[in-house]
Amino acid sequence: MSARRRFDEELGLLHHELVEMGSMIEKAIKTSFKAIESDDEEAAKDIIESDKAINEMERKIEARCLKLILRQQPVATDLRLISTAMKMITDMERIGDHAADIASICLDDEKEKNPEPFRIVDDKILKMADIDLEMVASSISAFINDNLELAKTTIKTDSEVDELFYEVRDDIIKGLKSDKISPSLAMDTLMLIKYLERIGDHATNICEWVIFYLTGEHKNKKLL
Amino acid sequence: MSARRRFDEELGLLHHELVEMGSMIEKAIKTSFKAIESDDEEAAKDIIESDKAINEMERKIEARCLKLILRQQPVATDLRLISTAMKMITDMERIGDHAADIASICLDDEKEKNPEPFRIVDDKILKMADIDLEMVASSISAFINDNLELAKTTIKTDSEVDELFYEVRDDIIKGLKSDKISPSLAMDTLMLIKYLERIGDHATNICEWVIFYLTGEHKNKKLL
Protein backbone atom coordinates (compact mmCIF):
# COMPACT_ATOMS: atom_id res chain seq x y z
CA MET A 1 0.00 0.00 0.00
CA SER A 2 1.32 3.45 -0.83
CA ALA A 3 2.13 5.84 2.00
CA ARG A 4 -0.52 8.21 0.65
CA ARG A 5 -3.15 5.50 0.63
CA ARG A 6 -2.27 4.46 4.19
CA PHE A 7 -2.51 8.11 5.19
CA ASP A 8 -5.97 8.39 3.58
CA GLU A 9 -7.06 5.28 5.43
CA GLU A 10 -5.91 6.79 8.70
CA LEU A 11 -7.81 9.98 7.90
CA GLY A 12 -10.89 7.83 7.30
CA LEU A 13 -10.48 6.29 10.75
CA LEU A 14 -10.11 9.75 12.27
CA HIS A 15 -13.32 10.81 10.56
CA HIS A 16 -15.10 7.74 11.89
CA GLU A 17 -13.88 8.31 15.46
CA LEU A 18 -15.02 11.92 15.42
CA VAL A 19 -18.51 10.81 14.40
CA GLU A 20 -18.49 8.20 17.18
CA MET A 21 -17.38 10.77 19.76
CA GLY A 22 -20.19 13.03 18.51
CA SER A 23 -22.76 10.27 19.15
CA MET A 24 -21.30 9.69 22.60
CA ILE A 25 -21.73 13.32 23.67
CA GLU A 26 -25.23 13.60 22.21
CA LYS A 27 -26.21 10.51 24.17
CA ALA A 28 -24.59 11.95 27.31
CA ILE A 29 -26.65 15.14 27.09
CA LYS A 30 -29.89 13.19 26.54
CA THR A 31 -29.31 10.75 29.40
CA SER A 32 -28.20 13.53 31.77
CA PHE A 33 -31.45 15.25 31.12
CA LYS A 34 -33.43 12.10 31.75
CA ALA A 35 -31.53 11.57 35.02
CA ILE A 36 -32.28 15.08 36.16
CA GLU A 37 -35.95 15.00 35.16
CA SER A 38 -36.57 11.75 37.04
CA ASP A 39 -34.05 12.63 39.79
CA ASP A 40 -32.39 9.27 39.18
CA GLU A 41 -29.15 9.17 41.20
CA GLU A 42 -28.05 5.78 39.85
CA ALA A 43 -28.41 6.95 36.25
CA ALA A 44 -26.47 10.09 37.16
CA LYS A 45 -23.60 8.00 38.52
CA ASP A 46 -23.57 5.96 35.29
CA ILE A 47 -23.32 9.13 33.20
CA ILE A 48 -20.44 10.46 35.26
CA GLU A 49 -18.73 7.09 34.82
CA SER A 50 -19.32 7.03 31.06
CA ASP A 51 -17.80 10.50 30.76
CA LYS A 52 -14.49 8.70 31.21
CA ALA A 53 -15.11 6.90 27.91
CA ILE A 54 -15.54 10.28 26.21
CA ASN A 55 -12.26 11.49 27.73
CA GLU A 56 -10.56 8.29 26.52
CA MET A 57 -11.94 8.89 23.05
CA GLU A 58 -10.51 12.40 23.08
CA ARG A 59 -7.07 11.03 23.93
CA LYS A 60 -7.32 8.32 21.29
CA ILE A 61 -8.18 10.85 18.59
CA GLU A 62 -5.49 13.21 19.85
CA ALA A 63 -2.87 10.47 19.64
CA ARG A 64 -4.01 9.61 16.12
CA CYS A 65 -3.74 13.26 15.04
CA LEU A 66 -0.25 13.63 16.49
CA LYS A 67 0.89 10.44 14.81
CA LEU A 68 -0.63 11.53 11.48
CA ILE A 69 1.27 14.79 11.66
CA LEU A 70 4.45 13.02 12.70
CA ARG A 71 4.35 10.10 10.27
CA GLN A 72 4.09 11.97 7.02
CA GLN A 73 4.41 15.61 6.13
CA PRO A 74 0.75 16.41 5.50
CA VAL A 75 -0.27 18.76 2.69
CA ALA A 76 -2.09 21.97 3.65
CA THR A 77 -5.65 20.62 3.42
CA ASP A 78 -4.75 17.48 5.43
CA LEU A 79 -3.07 19.64 8.05
CA ARG A 80 -6.17 21.77 8.25
CA LEU A 81 -8.29 18.67 8.75
CA ILE A 82 -6.01 17.32 11.48
CA SER A 83 -5.73 20.60 13.35
CA THR A 84 -9.50 21.06 13.07
CA ALA A 85 -9.96 17.61 14.58
CA MET A 86 -7.55 18.42 17.43
CA LYS A 87 -9.47 21.59 18.22
CA MET A 88 -12.95 20.07 17.80
CA ILE A 89 -12.32 17.27 20.28
CA THR A 90 -11.38 19.75 23.01
CA ASP A 91 -14.82 21.30 22.70
CA MET A 92 -16.51 17.93 22.36
CA GLU A 93 -14.83 16.70 25.52
CA ARG A 94 -15.98 19.81 27.39
CA ILE A 95 -19.54 19.18 26.24
CA GLY A 96 -19.21 15.68 27.71
CA ASP A 97 -17.95 17.23 30.95
CA HIS A 98 -20.95 19.53 31.08
CA ALA A 99 -23.33 16.59 30.52
CA ALA A 100 -21.67 14.95 33.54
CA ASP A 101 -21.91 18.25 35.46
CA ILE A 102 -25.64 18.32 34.71
CA ALA A 103 -26.07 14.72 35.90
CA SER A 104 -24.08 15.47 39.07
CA ILE A 105 -26.71 18.03 40.10
CA CYS A 106 -28.86 15.00 41.05
CA LEU A 107 -26.20 14.03 43.56
CA ASP A 108 -26.17 17.38 45.32
CA ASP A 109 -26.40 16.78 49.09
CA GLU A 110 -28.31 19.98 49.72
CA LYS A 111 -31.01 18.72 47.40
CA GLU A 112 -31.75 15.72 49.64
CA LYS A 113 -32.48 18.04 52.52
CA ASN A 114 -34.89 19.86 50.26
CA PRO A 115 -38.48 19.20 51.38
CA GLU A 116 -40.04 19.76 47.96
CA PRO A 117 -39.76 17.14 45.23
CA PHE A 118 -36.78 17.87 43.00
CA ARG A 119 -38.33 19.67 40.02
CA ILE A 120 -35.76 21.71 38.26
CA VAL A 121 -36.75 21.43 34.61
CA ASP A 122 -39.32 23.75 33.05
CA ASP A 123 -40.26 24.36 29.39
CA LYS A 124 -37.62 27.01 28.84
CA ILE A 125 -34.89 24.74 30.17
CA LEU A 126 -36.14 21.88 27.99
CA LYS A 127 -36.03 24.26 25.05
CA MET A 128 -32.38 25.13 25.89
CA ALA A 129 -31.48 21.44 25.97
CA ASP A 130 -33.27 20.84 22.64
CA ILE A 131 -31.42 23.68 20.92
CA ASP A 132 -28.13 22.44 22.40
CA LEU A 133 -28.70 18.93 21.07
CA GLU A 134 -29.58 20.31 17.66
CA MET A 135 -26.47 22.52 17.67
CA VAL A 136 -24.15 19.66 18.65
CA ALA A 137 -25.62 17.35 15.99
CA SER A 138 -25.44 20.08 13.33
CA SER A 139 -21.88 21.09 14.15
CA ILE A 140 -20.66 17.53 13.64
CA SER A 141 -22.87 17.02 10.60
CA ALA A 142 -21.40 20.21 9.10
CA PHE A 143 -17.93 18.73 9.54
CA ILE A 144 -18.80 15.32 8.09
CA ASN A 145 -20.62 16.74 5.08
CA ASP A 146 -18.34 19.74 4.42
CA ASN A 147 -21.43 21.88 4.90
CA LEU A 148 -20.29 25.50 5.33
CA GLU A 149 -23.84 26.89 5.36
CA LEU A 150 -24.89 24.54 8.16
CA ALA A 151 -21.88 25.59 10.25
CA LYS A 152 -22.79 29.25 9.77
CA THR A 153 -26.52 28.90 10.54
CA THR A 154 -25.75 26.77 13.62
CA ILE A 155 -23.58 29.54 15.08
CA LYS A 156 -26.52 31.95 14.78
CA THR A 157 -28.73 29.65 16.90
CA ASP A 158 -26.47 30.18 19.91
CA SER A 159 -28.08 33.56 20.67
CA GLU A 160 -31.38 31.75 21.37
CA VAL A 161 -29.68 29.69 24.09
CA ASP A 162 -28.12 32.86 25.54
CA GLU A 163 -31.48 34.63 25.62
CA LEU A 164 -33.14 31.68 27.35
CA PHE A 165 -30.31 31.66 29.89
CA TYR A 166 -31.09 35.24 30.92
CA GLU A 167 -34.85 34.60 30.93
CA VAL A 168 -34.56 31.59 33.24
CA ARG A 169 -32.04 33.46 35.41
CA ASP A 170 -34.65 36.21 35.88
CA ASP A 171 -37.29 33.55 36.62
CA ILE A 172 -35.03 32.13 39.35
CA ILE A 173 -34.56 35.57 40.93
CA LYS A 174 -38.33 36.16 40.84
CA GLY A 175 -38.91 32.69 42.31
CA LEU A 176 -36.53 33.42 45.17
CA LYS A 177 -38.13 36.79 45.88
CA SER A 178 -41.59 35.23 46.08
CA ASP A 179 -40.34 32.17 48.03
CA LYS A 180 -41.49 29.84 45.26
CA ILE A 181 -38.06 28.24 44.91
CA SER A 182 -35.69 27.17 47.67
CA PRO A 183 -32.19 28.69 47.71
CA SER A 184 -30.50 25.36 47.05
CA LEU A 185 -32.80 24.56 44.13
CA ALA A 186 -32.11 28.07 42.80
CA MET A 187 -28.35 27.40 42.92
CA ASP A 188 -28.77 24.05 41.16
CA THR A 189 -31.00 25.55 38.48
CA LEU A 190 -28.60 28.41 37.82
CA MET A 191 -25.74 25.93 37.40
CA LEU A 192 -27.88 23.76 35.13
CA ILE A 193 -28.69 26.62 32.75
CA LYS A 194 -25.07 27.78 32.86
CA TYR A 195 -23.94 24.33 31.69
CA LEU A 196 -26.57 24.41 28.94
CA GLU A 197 -25.41 27.86 27.90
CA ARG A 198 -21.79 26.64 27.77
CA ILE A 199 -22.73 23.62 25.64
CA GLY A 200 -24.10 26.08 23.07
CA ASP A 201 -20.79 27.98 23.19
CA HIS A 202 -18.78 24.81 22.61
CA ALA A 203 -21.00 23.79 19.67
CA THR A 204 -20.34 27.28 18.29
CA ASN A 205 -16.59 26.73 18.67
CA ILE A 206 -16.86 23.44 16.78
CA CYS A 207 -18.67 25.23 13.94
CA GLU A 208 -15.96 27.90 13.87
CA TRP A 209 -13.35 25.18 13.45
CA VAL A 210 -15.42 23.55 10.70
CA ILE A 211 -15.44 26.91 8.92
CA PHE A 212 -11.66 27.07 9.33
CA TYR A 213 -11.37 23.58 7.87
CA LEU A 214 -13.48 24.49 4.84
CA THR A 215 -12.20 28.02 4.19
CA GLY A 216 -8.88 28.46 6.04
CA GLU A 217 -10.46 31.34 7.94
CA HIS A 218 -11.14 31.30 11.67
CA LYS A 219 -13.56 33.93 12.97
CA ASN A 220 -13.07 35.84 9.70
CA LYS A 221 -9.28 35.82 10.01
CA LYS A 222 -6.92 33.95 7.71
CA LEU A 223 -5.09 31.38 9.84
CA LEU A 224 -3.21 29.40 7.20
CA MET B 1 20.71 30.54 8.00
CA SER B 2 20.07 26.81 8.18
CA ALA B 3 16.48 25.56 8.15
CA ARG B 4 17.03 24.09 11.61
CA ARG B 5 18.31 27.35 12.98
CA ARG B 6 15.36 29.24 11.50
CA PHE B 7 13.09 26.65 13.07
CA ASP B 8 14.75 27.13 16.48
CA GLU B 9 14.33 30.87 16.16
CA GLU B 10 10.64 30.38 15.43
CA LEU B 11 10.35 28.12 18.48
CA GLY B 12 11.96 30.88 20.54
CA LEU B 13 9.36 33.34 19.31
CA LEU B 14 6.60 30.87 20.19
CA HIS B 15 8.03 30.57 23.69
CA HIS B 16 8.14 34.34 24.03
CA GLU B 17 4.54 34.74 22.86
CA LEU B 18 3.28 32.13 25.32
CA VAL B 19 4.94 34.02 28.18
CA GLU B 20 3.37 37.25 26.94
CA MET B 21 -0.07 35.65 26.72
CA GLY B 22 0.44 34.35 30.26
CA SER B 23 1.12 37.88 31.52
CA MET B 24 -1.96 39.14 29.70
CA ILE B 25 -4.28 36.65 31.41
CA GLU B 26 -2.76 37.20 34.86
CA LYS B 27 -3.31 40.93 34.42
CA ALA B 28 -6.88 40.29 33.24
CA ILE B 29 -7.71 38.32 36.39
CA LYS B 30 -6.20 40.97 38.67
CA THR B 31 -7.95 43.90 36.98
CA SER B 32 -11.28 42.05 36.85
CA PHE B 33 -11.09 41.59 40.55
CA LYS B 34 -10.29 45.24 41.12
CA ALA B 35 -13.26 46.21 38.92
CA ILE B 36 -15.58 43.98 40.87
CA GLU B 37 -14.33 45.07 44.28
CA SER B 38 -14.79 48.74 43.46
CA ASP B 39 -17.87 48.10 41.28
CA ASP B 40 -16.16 50.07 38.50
CA GLU B 41 -18.24 49.69 35.34
CA GLU B 42 -15.81 51.60 33.13
CA ALA B 43 -12.91 49.36 34.18
CA ALA B 44 -15.11 46.33 33.52
CA LYS B 45 -15.80 47.52 29.98
CA ASP B 46 -12.05 47.99 29.41
CA ILE B 47 -11.35 44.43 30.55
CA ILE B 48 -13.99 43.00 28.25
CA GLU B 49 -12.44 45.03 25.43
CA SER B 50 -8.90 43.85 26.22
CA ASP B 51 -10.07 40.21 26.19
CA LYS B 52 -10.09 40.66 22.41
CA ALA B 53 -6.31 41.14 22.52
CA ILE B 54 -5.99 37.80 24.35
CA ASN B 55 -8.12 36.13 21.69
CA GLU B 56 -5.94 37.71 18.99
CA MET B 57 -2.84 36.40 20.75
CA GLU B 58 -4.32 32.90 20.77
CA ARG B 59 -4.88 33.07 17.03
CA LYS B 60 -1.40 34.46 16.41
CA ILE B 61 0.20 31.60 18.37
CA GLU B 62 -2.07 29.08 16.70
CA ALA B 63 -1.06 30.30 13.24
CA ARG B 64 2.61 30.10 14.24
CA CYS B 65 2.19 26.53 15.48
CA LEU B 66 0.44 25.44 12.30
CA LYS B 67 3.12 27.05 10.15
CA LEU B 68 5.87 25.44 12.23
CA ILE B 69 4.30 22.02 11.70
CA LEU B 70 3.76 22.70 8.01
CA ARG B 71 7.11 24.25 7.16
CA GLN B 72 9.43 21.56 8.40
CA GLN B 73 8.85 18.02 9.53
CA PRO B 74 9.37 18.50 13.27
CA VAL B 75 11.16 15.87 15.33
CA ALA B 76 9.21 14.22 18.17
CA THR B 77 10.22 16.65 20.94
CA ASP B 78 9.50 19.69 18.75
CA LEU B 79 6.14 18.23 17.83
CA ARG B 80 5.40 17.72 21.49
CA LEU B 81 6.30 21.33 22.21
CA ILE B 82 4.11 22.62 19.38
CA SER B 83 1.11 20.47 20.26
CA THR B 84 1.51 21.42 23.93
CA ALA B 85 1.46 25.08 22.91
CA MET B 86 -1.66 24.55 20.78
CA LYS B 87 -3.44 22.92 23.72
CA MET B 88 -2.18 25.39 26.36
CA ILE B 89 -3.45 28.44 24.51
CA THR B 90 -6.99 27.03 24.39
CA ASP B 91 -7.01 26.93 28.19
CA MET B 92 -5.26 30.28 28.46
CA GLU B 93 -7.84 31.88 26.21
CA ARG B 94 -10.66 30.41 28.33
CA ILE B 95 -9.07 31.86 31.46
CA GLY B 96 -9.11 35.24 29.70
CA ASP B 97 -12.80 34.70 28.89
CA HIS B 98 -13.54 33.96 32.53
CA ALA B 99 -11.71 37.12 33.63
CA ALA B 100 -14.00 39.03 31.25
CA ASP B 101 -17.00 37.07 32.59
CA ILE B 102 -16.04 38.17 36.11
CA ALA B 103 -15.72 41.80 35.04
CA SER B 104 -19.09 41.62 33.27
CA ILE B 105 -20.80 40.87 36.59
CA CYS B 106 -20.34 44.60 37.33
CA LEU B 107 -22.51 45.36 34.32
CA ASP B 108 -25.42 43.22 35.44
CA ASP B 109 -28.64 45.25 35.12
CA GLU B 110 -30.30 43.53 38.06
CA LYS B 111 -27.46 44.73 40.24
CA GLU B 112 -28.32 48.39 39.60
CA LYS B 113 -31.80 47.80 40.94
CA ASN B 114 -30.21 46.31 44.04
CA PRO B 115 -30.71 48.67 46.98
CA GLU B 116 -27.65 47.49 48.91
CA PRO B 117 -24.16 48.54 47.84
CA PHE B 118 -22.61 45.95 45.55
CA ARG B 119 -20.41 43.90 47.88
CA ILE B 120 -19.76 40.51 46.46
CA VAL B 121 -16.21 39.74 47.54
CA ASP B 122 -15.44 38.16 50.90
CA ASP B 123 -12.23 36.63 52.27
CA LYS B 124 -12.94 33.16 50.90
CA ILE B 125 -13.53 34.55 47.42
CA LEU B 126 -10.33 36.60 47.64
CA LYS B 127 -8.53 33.42 48.66
CA MET B 128 -9.93 31.62 45.59
CA ALA B 129 -8.69 34.41 43.34
CA ASP B 130 -5.25 34.33 44.99
CA ILE B 131 -4.88 30.59 44.50
CA ASP B 132 -6.06 30.94 40.89
CA LEU B 133 -3.46 33.60 40.17
CA GLU B 134 -0.76 31.48 41.76
CA MET B 135 -1.87 28.44 39.75
CA VAL B 136 -1.88 30.33 36.46
CA ALA B 137 1.57 31.81 37.11
CA SER B 138 2.97 28.43 38.19
CA SER B 139 1.53 26.54 35.23
CA ILE B 140 3.25 28.88 32.78
CA SER B 141 6.43 28.97 34.84
CA ALA B 142 6.49 25.16 34.84
CA PHE B 143 6.36 25.26 31.06
CA ILE B 144 9.05 27.90 30.63
CA ASN B 145 11.45 26.26 33.09
CA ASP B 146 10.73 22.61 32.17
CA ASN B 147 9.71 22.19 35.81
CA LEU B 148 7.86 18.87 36.13
CA GLU B 149 7.60 19.06 39.93
CA LEU B 150 6.00 22.51 39.78
CA ALA B 151 3.42 21.27 37.25
CA LYS B 152 2.56 18.35 39.54
CA THR B 153 2.27 20.37 42.77
CA THR B 154 0.20 23.04 41.01
CA ILE B 155 -2.37 20.44 39.97
CA LYS B 156 -2.77 19.43 43.62
CA THR B 157 -3.67 23.01 44.61
CA ASP B 158 -6.83 22.83 42.52
CA SER B 159 -8.68 20.91 45.23
CA GLU B 160 -8.37 23.96 47.53
CA VAL B 161 -10.23 26.06 44.97
CA ASP B 162 -12.90 23.37 44.64
CA GLU B 163 -13.37 23.19 48.41
CA LEU B 164 -13.70 26.96 48.67
CA PHE B 165 -16.27 26.86 45.87
CA TYR B 166 -18.51 24.53 47.90
CA GLU B 167 -17.96 26.52 51.10
CA VAL B 168 -18.98 29.81 49.48
CA ARG B 169 -21.88 28.11 47.73
CA ASP B 170 -23.15 26.97 51.14
CA ASP B 171 -22.63 30.49 52.50
CA ILE B 172 -24.78 31.87 49.68
CA ILE B 173 -27.57 29.39 50.44
CA LYS B 174 -27.43 30.29 54.15
CA GLY B 175 -27.41 33.99 53.24
CA LEU B 176 -30.51 33.54 51.11
CA LYS B 177 -32.30 31.59 53.81
CA SER B 178 -31.63 34.30 56.39
CA ASP B 179 -32.36 37.14 53.91
CA LYS B 180 -28.83 38.52 54.31
CA ILE B 181 -28.19 38.41 50.58
CA SER B 182 -30.52 39.46 47.77
CA PRO B 183 -31.42 36.86 45.13
CA SER B 184 -29.68 38.77 42.34
CA LEU B 185 -26.50 39.20 44.38
CA ALA B 186 -26.66 35.48 45.18
CA MET B 187 -26.82 34.65 41.46
CA ASP B 188 -23.90 36.97 40.70
CA THR B 189 -21.82 35.53 43.52
CA LEU B 190 -22.48 31.95 42.45
CA MET B 191 -21.39 32.79 38.90
CA LEU B 192 -18.31 34.57 40.21
CA ILE B 193 -17.15 31.57 42.22
CA LYS B 194 -17.98 29.25 39.33
CA TYR B 195 -15.67 31.28 37.06
CA LEU B 196 -12.95 31.17 39.72
CA GLU B 197 -13.39 27.42 40.05
CA ARG B 198 -13.12 27.03 36.26
CA ILE B 199 -9.93 29.12 36.12
CA GLY B 200 -8.39 26.58 38.52
CA ASP B 201 -9.51 23.77 36.20
CA HIS B 202 -7.93 25.45 33.18
CA ALA B 203 -4.65 26.03 35.04
CA THR B 204 -4.75 22.31 35.89
CA ASN B 205 -5.22 21.49 32.19
CA ILE B 206 -2.21 23.64 31.32
CA CYS B 207 -0.12 21.73 33.89
CA GLU B 208 -1.28 18.43 32.42
CA TRP B 209 -0.07 19.56 29.00
CA VAL B 210 3.25 20.68 30.49
CA ILE B 211 3.62 17.17 31.95
CA PHE B 212 2.86 15.76 28.49
CA TYR B 213 5.50 18.04 26.99
CA LEU B 214 8.12 16.93 29.51
CA THR B 215 7.26 13.21 29.74
CA GLY B 216 5.13 12.28 26.70
CA GLU B 217 2.41 11.18 29.11
CA HIS B 218 -0.95 12.88 29.43
CA LYS B 219 -2.96 12.11 32.57
CA ASN B 220 -0.72 9.05 33.09
CA LYS B 221 -1.32 7.74 29.58
CA LYS B 222 1.32 7.56 26.86
CA LEU B 223 0.18 9.83 24.03
CA LEU B 224 3.19 9.79 21.73
From TrEMBL, chains A, B:
It is found in: Cytoplasm. SUPFAM superfamilies: PhoU-like. Residues 18-104, 125-210 form the PhoU domain. Pfam families: PhoU. Signal peptide: none annotated. The keyword DNA-binding does not apply. Keywords: Cytoplasm, Phosphate transport, Transport. The keyword Cytoplasm applies. It comes from the Bacteria. GO terms for cellular component: cytoplasm. GO terms for biological process: intracellular phosphate ion homeostasis; negative regulation of phosphate metabolic process; phosphate ion transport. Homodimer. Belongs to the PhoU family. Plays a role in the regulation of phosphate uptake. This is Phosphate-specific transport system accessory protein PhoU. The gene is phoU.
